[in-house]
Amino acid sequence: MLDASCAPIAFAGSPMDRADNIRVDPEALGNLMNWRARVMELDGLLPSVDETGGLIWGTLADVDPDTELVFLGMMDDKAHFAPVPPQGSTSPAMPRAWQVMQLLRPEELAVYGGAKSLVDWHARHKFCANCGAPTKITKGGWQRDCGNCGAQHFPRTDPVTIMLVEHEDKLLLGRQPRFPPKIYSALAGFVEPGETIEEAVAREVWEEVGVRVSGVRYLASQPWPFPSQMMIGCTSIAETTELTIDKTELDDARWFDREELEDARNAGPGGNETLIFPQRFAIAHRLVTWWLDKGADA
Question: Which among 23, 53, 81, 275 has most CB atoms closer than 10 A?
Fold first, then answer.
């Protein structure tokens, strides 16, 4: 596993107390909806950020009475809420979202990430998946109920494996078609029904690049609010090195030696002539950094 003494992984380490005991108590929650309550200011799904890298919060008086509110939890002895936007996300992440992520302080990014996942889910699940009737918020926004058929719906988090593939002193990285030029990252894919994390890692690597792996080990995880995933970071050992790239999934994939990756890391955010190191807010950054530092300590 990764060193727990390192700085928190992006979107992790929220100081918000989720206060489950209040969520399930409508009276207690109602008593907290007063002048002291704080509401996250959102432009659609993007937060407003002040000059210090902090989130900007308004009050309940600033919110349209018809807007659905989600109870995020307690912080600084105040109830904190986020408004559900009219529309949810339609793409993994927007250019403006990347910019905002780099502005926010780590603890603020974690608060925003949890809120974004939650309100995004509500914006995209206003109708019952069972009968199609409208649903309404319950439990402070941690559940939606259908008044027609009685079905209960809960915010979901989709598990995704993201994995290093090691062979001797090289790492296998790939680039998706949507990536900006020169960016390569760890391979990744959704865990499918009926498989373990280890099986998902092996299947995804085989499907995307035609490489068999073994020795899968868990390293770390990261909540990823685009729209709402749990990235499960692993490493694995390649049994072969020849690549058969699935071009429907990847633009390219290649083996990188330690010198190439170290040079790209040292070059900073713009990378070197051929490679940009994974961005710091992605768990791939932490995984590749771990591999480089592990080798340096060996």
Answer: 81
- Residue-range domain boundaries for the chain: 1-119, 125-155, 158-297
Torsions phi, psi of 164, nearest 5?
-80, 145
Q: Residues of 258-277 as b/e, b for ≥16 C-beta within 10 angstroms?
A: eebbebbbeeeeebeeebbb
Which pLDDT does position 96 carry in this prediction? 76
Radius of gyration of the chain (CA): 21
Task: Name the strand (E) or helix (H) holding 72.
Answer: strand 69-75
Name the strand (E) or helix (H) holding 120.
helix 106-124
Spans of the chain, pLDDT less than 70: 3-7, 90-95, 296-298
Per-residue tokens: 163: 């994995």
- pTM of the full structure: 0.93
Residues 6+ apart with CB under 8 A from 264: 271, 272, 274, 275, 276, 277
Which amino acid would we find at residue 230?
M
How many Å separate Cα 55 from the centre of its chain?
A: 18
Residue among 9, 160, 155, 159 at smallest CA distance from 82: 155
Q: Which two tokens stand for residue 238?
A: 């390649």
Task: Report which of 232, 221, 237, 219 is spatially closest to residue 290, judged by C-alpha positions.
Answer: 219
pLDDT tens digits for 266-288? 999 898 999 999 988 899 999 99
Q: Which CATH architecture has domain 158-297?
A: Alpha-Beta Complex (3.90)
Tell me what pLDDT residue 79 has.
Answer: 98
Contact 156, 142 (CB under 8 A): no
